[in-house]
Structure formats: structure tokens, C-alpha cells
Amino acid sequence: MLIDFHTHCFPDKIAQKAIEKLSDASGGLIYHTDGTVSGLLDSMQRHNTDASVVLNIATNAHQQKSVNDFAAAINDEQKVFAFGSVFPDSEDALEELERIKDLGLKGVKLHPDYQGFDVDDPKMKPIYKKISSLGLITVFHAGFDYGFAPPYGATPEKMAKALLWFDSPVIAAHWGGINCGQGVLSHLCGKDIYFDTSFGYSMMPKYYAEKILEKHGTDKMLFGTDTPWHTAEMEMRLLHNLKLSDSDMEKITHLNAEKLLFSGEPLNNN
Ligand SMILES: [Zn+2]
Q1: Among 19, 114, 200, 255, which is disulfide-ready with 204 (CB 3.0 to 4.6 Å)?
Q2: How close is the Cα of 174 to the center of ligand 1, in Å?
Q3: Quick check: pTM over 0.85?
Q4: What local confidence, expressed as pLDDT, does residue 147 receive?
């Protein structure tokens, strides 16, 4: 059983353009799917992935509703668990969070750099409180983003402060922060926060991956790829290289995700 907690795809008619634009902004990143939902499903089949969490991001206020409608349309609760998003500066962000809940989505993705905020900015407090009251899961992009110049909106230090405003599960993507191994160890490990393993292959130094697992344990680690940018094969290569026990691998590859998504019930997608 393999659940990928960090993937992306786009509506068919904009997928190609979206993916080329994102690749270009990040220095020509290679993409491993065509950016569509069917491209994601093909990739899942190739890599024996049973279910994927699709993370959508509203990059402006105007886009918010259509992003969440897309999420609801592809959210089949079997193979695809799509998360919604709100644009923090939009006037109706709090109402849209309620709509996300009503649409049956289990969480939201927030990306400080694409959405123009620091995770510990007090303006975010009402949004985090609303998310918490609705019991939604929050995935933050964390650490560096190759499409942006520093300073970055979700460094481990800022994330540790933001965490205090949440009463619902928080996931810091990319092992707690791309290129932030030391900061993750100092500010986040051992706290009530999940890390996903996405985009870790060839990015997260083995030294830090081992130290993070040692200090944070494996109960709050979630397998993720960041498809289309990385594949399950790539991320598995890193995990296997870390010589985890079978029970730790089970937790990371699906048990922890099942706890978060279905209160521990096994995924049943047959
Ligand atoms: Zn991503």
C-alpha cells in the first residue's frame, strides 16, 4: 500500500501551460507527467501508488473558487484526495474555507511564496483559527522554493511560531523545509507537526534525513513525491537508502496517512 501525500495536477485545458510556466520559473525543472489528472493516474499506476493527495494552490483571490471547484471535481475519495486552497488576502477567504469543508475536501494547501505571506504573519491567525475550527488538514510548502528569491515565507523558525495558532493537523512539506535541514532539526523536530518526504530525493542530504528521523520519529512522517516534479521511484530510492525498519516504512508509506485521512481506517479503493 502506498499513499502519496503530495502531488499536483491541473485542469486539462490549462495543464500544459501551467506546467511549462512552473518548470520555467524554477530553472527548467523536468516534469514526469503531462500535468493532467489522467497523467497523474498513469504515473500512480506505473509506480504502484494506491492513492494520491492532490494539492491545489490559489495564487490570487479571483482564482480561489475555481481552484476549489476543480479540487471537488477530481476528489473521488478513492484514488484522488484533493485539497483546496484559499488566497489569504481575498475578502472571502474565511467563507471559502467553509465552502471547502462543505465540498467534502479534507484539507488545504497554502504556499507562502506563491501567495505572498510569511507563515507567522499575524494576518494569518484568523485563517488558521478557521481552518482549525473546521478540522481541516493544512499542508504548507516549506523551505526554499526554486521559483522565488529569498527571504522565504516558511522557514522552520517561522513555521514553529505559526504552529502555535493551529488546533488541527499541520504538514510542513519537503521534510519540513527544502534546504533547511538544520533549521528543521532546531525548530520543528519533536513538535506536533507532520513532514512529508516530497522532493527529498537528491535535495535532502542523507545526513539531515537521518537526523530528522532520529529526532522526530516516524509517527508524523508522510510519504510524498511532488509529482510531476519527482516520482515515487525517486522518493522510494531515498527512503530505502535510509535503512528504515519495516514498521517505520509502513507508517511512512501509508499508516500515518490513513490516520490523518480516515482516522486510521485502511484505504479501500477497490
Ligand atoms: Zn509541491
Answers
A1: 200
A2: 8
A3: yes
A4: 86
